[in-house]
Design goal:
The chain is an alpha/beta fold. It folds into two domains: about 5-260 and about 465-485, Aldehyde Dehydrogenase, Chain A, domain 1; about 265-455, Aldehyde Dehydrogenase, Chain A, domain 2. It is built from 15 helices and 22 strands. The strands form six sheets. A seven-stranded mixed beta sheet has the order 14-15-16-13-12-18-19, with helices on both faces. A six-stranded mixed beta sheet has the order 9-8-7-10-11-21, sandwiched between helices. Helix 1 (about 50-65) runs parallel beside helix 7. The chain starts with 15 loop residues before the first strand and ends with a strand. Nicotinamide-adenine-dinucleotide (NAD) binds near residues 293 and 464.
Length: about 475
């Protein structure tokens, strides 16, 4: 059966999800479909009162279900049942997501949703495998490091991969025995509400997952500053990450994981498989139209192969075909909003003004949706806006080098250190670069995540604090207590 659908036929769960119930709410922020610009509904904005009520509901749910204290295998099994239901409902979930977001329905079912279900299973398996430890002490004492859940975790997610980001936050927090209040992006909230509804259907205790809708300044601020939110797990821009740190510092003290922006380099040496590199680089900057935190947007290539590689990347970038997210065959996504597309365009224009040259693209596409041409920019120095700014669109810059030192100097970014790519067949150089690159991830001869969820992801510099995915992410949702017993 085709996954393509008529966007006017989809019923959306518009409302907050509190204590296992959809609480309809009216008014709020007007929402437009990125694929055709049509207004379709409004996102309610929860104020302090709704956030208070939601946090209270999570606290009550934790207490009545004893979620953090049940046999750990029960948590594993409940989360696995939820993951199974997410997979079983993948088509409905994909349609809700594709309608509102930039994610094409075909990519959602085979990619985002399948991976999210698998990641929830992955985290579920930690529940009965990671725990407290006994530590060496003298014979007169017994020392242990006791591991416990935090209580209610506050999570906030961005719009670029809404289902995946919800999974990254909910999976480890719930497996670790916490309840969660999640605020999805005001631009793409409904797939997160639907996932929470599925959790209740799958048998997770009512009130363990709550979703409050709203913007950053009102709802986000109320959530991060709430005294009963014990830990924050945030993914979004570095600007919002700073605002959250400020708010938390003002209202109290609590641990936080911040997954923030990026401006990742892709370094290509002449000894690399250039076809493979071109495919990975063009793929990274056109996937989701470059709206990915780890998008490899700065190509840094050895001078003697620069023309060859650039030509091959150009050919691939020019071949993309835009389409609405509700067509199964669509590969090239729209930009999330008119405002974001205008921002991309203004940075590209500023880059050209500062002396850069557009080898392809550089314009909005002529279509009712918010599409932007894949864009390749040359002649940029380290101060050019196209190098400095996280553009969050399909824009790649190209710079050249002759020595390893030059490549490393160009790769280093003043603000960001999220991911990096290296293409070479020289093993010693690979290790040298893996050591020296200032980034939380180094991909070698590929530029994408694998389905090995054990590899943590997170940033250096202002790209963030702490990790998502991997064991780290589970452990970040537990706190430890030192216990010393005199015998
Ligand atoms: P954004 O920072 O504008 O918004 C992200 C979320 O934070 C939204 O839910 C928003 O409502 C909320 N928010 C905004 N201001 C807030 C505040 N003061 N207090 C509390 N919440 C607030 O980001 P975006 O435009 O939705 O997403 C794009 C950004 O996310 C990019 O910078 C991208 O690199 C980053 N991102 C990072 C990762 C990662 O893993 N490092 C993954 C995906 C996206």
């Amino acid at each position: 059966m085709s996954l393509s659908f008529d966007p006017n036929t989809i019923r959306l769960p518009v409302g907050h999800f509190i204590g296992g119930e959809l609480i309809p709410a009216e008014g709020g922020i007007e929402m437009r479909r990125p694929s055709d610009g049509k207004s379709y509904t409004a996102c309610p904005v929860a104020g302090v009162d709704v956030v208070d009520r939601t946090v209270e509901s999570a606290k009550v749910a934790l207490k009545t279900s004893n979620w953090g204290g049940v046999r750990p295998r029960e948590r594993t099994r409940a989360l696995q049942a939820w993951a199974d239901l997410i997979e079983a409902e993948a088509e409905t979930l994909a349609r809700i997501e594709a309608l509102c977001s930039t994610r094409p329905v075909g990519q959602l079912v085979a990619g985002d949703i399948a991976i999210t279900a698998e990641q929830i299973r992955f985290f579920a398996e930690f529940a009965d495998k990671e725990g407290s430890e006994l530590v060496p002490t003298d014979d007169a004492n017994l020392g242990m490091i006791m591991s416990e859940p935090y209580g209610v975790v506050g999570a906030i997610t961005p719009w670029n991969f809404p289902v995946s980001m919800a999974g990254w936050k909910l999976g480890p927090a719930l497996a670790a025995g916490n309840a969660v209040v999640l605020k999805p992006s005001e631009m793409t909230p409904f797939s997160t509400v639907y996932i929470a509804q599925l959790a209740v259907k799958a048998g997770l205790p009512v009130g363990l997952i709550n979703v409050v809708l709203g913007d950053g300044p009102t709802t986000g601020t109320a959530l991060t500053g709430h005294p009963d939110i014990a830990k924050i797990s945030f993914t979004g821009s570095s600007r919002a990450g700073s605002a959250i740190m400020e708010n938390v510092a003002r209202t109290g003290v609590k641990p936080m994981t911040l997954e923030l922006g990026g401006k990742s380099p892709q370094i290509v040496f002449a000894d690399a498989d250039l076809d493979r590199a071109a495919m990975a680089i063009a793929g990274s900057v056109t996937f989701n139209a470059g709206q990915a935190c780890v998008a490899g947007t700065r190509l840094i290539v050895e001078k003697r192969v620069a023309d060859r590689l650039t030509a091959s990347i150009l050919e691939r970038m020019k071949a993309v075909r835009p389409g609405p997210t509700w067509n199964e065959a669509t590969q090239y996504s729209p930009i999330i909003s008119e405002r974001q597309r205008a921002r991309i365009d203004s940075i590209v224009k500023a880059a050209v003004e500062a002396g850069a040259e557009c080898l392809t693209g550089g314009n909005v596409m002529d279509s009712p949706g918010y599409f932007y041409e894949p864009t390749l920019i040359a002649n940029v120095d380290q101060a050019n806006p196209a190098i400095i700014e996280e553009i969050f669109g399909p824009v790649l810059t190209v710079q050249t080098f002759e020595t390893e030192e030059e490549a490393l100097a160009l790769a280093s970014h003043p603000t960001y250190g999220l991911a990096s790519g290296l293409f070479t067949t020289d093993l010693s150089r690979t290790i040298r670069f893996a050591r020296k690159l200032e980034a939380g991830t180094v991909w070698v001869n590929r530029y994408s995540r694998s389905r090995d969820h054990i590899l943590p992801t997170g940033g250096y510099k202002r790209s963030g604090i702490g990790k998502d995915l991997g064991r780290d992410s589970y452990l970040a949702n537990r706190r430890t207590k030192s216990v010393l017993i005199s015998l």
